[in-house]
UniProtKB/TrEMBL annotation:
This is YcjX family protein. PANTHER family: ATPASE, ATPASE-RELATED. InterPro entries: YcjX-like. Pfam families: DUF463. It comes from the Bacteria.
Length: 468
């Protein structure tokens, strides 16, 4: 209790200090970049910064003509790792480009923009500087936000229900059948169940599922093997004793929520102003109706965190702050011909309806958009089966050869995707949707050009254009 009160007083003092110093300091925009696995957070940040430094491909950013310079500066938080921009750019723009490794820890980068003033004071006021602080954190951590509202019993019931309908859950179901939740806790049995649950999470992620909690089981870092990461979901026995396996797992779950999830909120989330949530909608559609429904439920749970008034824990942690703009970005739009981008955006808006409604109710401005932070393909048209197909062409990551992809015709009516997903259908009835693992294209950029993209400038305008 003392640490909670002290932390609240410290945050209140710092918030007051920030407010008092605001008229005498450069404005700061804190942009959070989150998303689920393989949604492209690292590429998004790398391409966004590169295109803000060389802005020839950013016509939809309204302040573009007034940006005199963009340059990197030391980040304000000395305790957080720096986002490895140079290393990621080297991977994407080298002679044999490849996708950089995904996010495995929280990191930060500061980009400063020098702007020419406009309006009546433009002639008498000198240029001003706006700092864009980008905070990147693993999507696996994002999954845990919903745990703040759930007890161990609630989480167990939900997790077991979802695993029951998946072939990937067979290994854990077999391990759980050999355990007795009411039996006295023994550490070897606890570790065996935790390993089996972690194996399930890994295989379910590979199969395209999204709601995989606890997220730190997939990226344990220095906590690997600790009791706080050694539990798993179990059905609650009628009257579990204090020394039972179920009670010990309940205690460890509560410790995980308190010491891992809440700590993440306090240290990385509570000071964010704007948020982009990247979603691999195409990957979920390719995986099938159950993966789409799983993604819808996961995003609805996650985005509940953006409405702090709904949860007493979040209200205390955020201390009155709130994120006032949230972009839901369906990534990998370059896997589709541009004629299908409106359908992808409509499906994303419908898929995230529950999540958007929660955020909108909190007063945040939200928008859905189909983007590609780094365009890896070009568009083409081919003859196939006596008809013309709009396709994209790119270099395959596995072989390096060029290939054409027609991902399937996305329906203009999103209900044709969401209705089978909600009803628990095993597969799509009318269409198969394909994806390919394209490698980054080999690029030769002209002076002043950033990497090619799709709507990254529109995303930037929505996220922070009003603050420039």
């Amino acid at each position: 209790m003392f640490s909670s009160i002290a932390g609240g007083l410290w945050r209140s003092t710092q918030d007051a200090a920030d407010l008092a110093l605001a008229p005498f300091s450069d404005p700061v925009i804190r942009l959070g970049v989150t998303g689920l696995s393989r949604a492209g957070k690292t590429v998004f940040i790398t391409s966004l910064v590169a295109n803000l430094m060389d802005r020839a491909r950013m016509p939809q950013l309204a302040a573009n003509p007034r940006i005199l310079a963009a340059y990197l500066q030391p980040q304000p938080d000395d305790t957080m790792p720096r986002f490895d921009l140079e290393g990621h750019l080297g991977a994407l723009l080298g002679p044999e480009p490849y996708w950089p490794e995904g996010t495995r820890r929280a990191s930060q980068l500061r980009l400063s923009l020098r702007l020419q003033p406009e309006g009546m004071l433009a002639g008498v006021q000198g240029p001003r500087t706006v700092h864009l602080d980008i905070v990147d954190y693993p999507g696996e951590w994002l999954l845990d936000l919903g745990l703040l509202e759930k007890s161990y019993a609630d989480w167990s019931a939900q997790a077991l229900r979802r695993a029951e309908g998946r072939a990937e859950g067979a290994v854990y179901r077999e391990a759980l059948a050999k355990a007795d939740p009411a039996a006295e806790h023994e550490e070897p049995a606890a570790q065996a169940l935790a390993r089996a649950w972690t194996t399930y999470l890994d295989t379910a992620r590979e199969a395209g599922y999204s709601d995989l909690t606890p997220g730190r089981f997939l990226l344990p870092g220095e906590m690997e093997g600790s009791p706080v990461l050694t539990f798993a979901p179990m059905p609650k026995p009628d009257d579990p004793t204090r020394r039972s396996l179920w009670r010990e797992f309940e205690r460890r779950y509560d410790s995980y929520v308190r010491n891992v999830v809440q700590k993440f909120f306090r240290e990385h989330f509570a000071r964010i102003d704007r948020q982009v949530v990247l979603v691999d909608v195409l990957g979920a559609i390719h995986a099938g109706p159950r993966a789409v429904e799983d993604l819808r439920e996961a995003m609805a749970d996650i985005l509940g965190a953006f409405r702090p008034g709904r949860n007493a824990v979040l209200s205390r942690l955020l201390r009155g702050r709130r994120i006032d703009r949230i972009l839901f970005a369906a990534t990998k739009a370059d896997h589709l011909h541009h004629s299908q981008h409106p359908a992808l955006q409509a499906i994303t808006e419908a898929l995230l309806r529950d999540a958007r409604d929660r955020a909108d109710f909190a007063g945040a401005t939200t928008q859905a958009m189909a983007i590609a932070a780094l365009r890896a393909t070009v568009e083409d048209r081919v003859e196939h089966g006596g008809r013309s197909l709009d396709v994209v062409r790119g270099r395959l990551a596995e072989t390096g050869r060029m290939a054409a992809l027609h991902a399937g015709e996305l329906p203009s009516d999103p209900s044709k995707i969401l209705s089978p997903a909600r009803s628990g259908a095993e597969r799509w009835l009318d269409e198969d949707y394909g994806i390919m693992n394209f490698a980054p294209a080999r690029l030769e950029l002209a002076p002043g050009e950033g990497p090619p993209h799709i709507r990254l400038d529109r995303a930037a305008q929505f996220l922070f254009g009003d603050r420039l």
